[in-house]
Amino acid sequence: MVAQPKPRISEEDYLTFERANRTKHEYYAGQIYAMAGAKEPHNLIAGNTHAALHRQLRQRPCRVYQSDMRVKVIRTGLHTYPDVVVVCGQPQFTDDVHDAIVNPMVIIEVLSASTERYDRGMKFQQYRTIETLRAYVLIAQDHQHIECYARQDTGQWLFQEASEPAQQVELAAIRCTLTIDDIYEKVDLEERDFGLPGDIPPFSI
Question: Can you give the pLDDT at residue 203?
Answer without folding.
Answer: 46
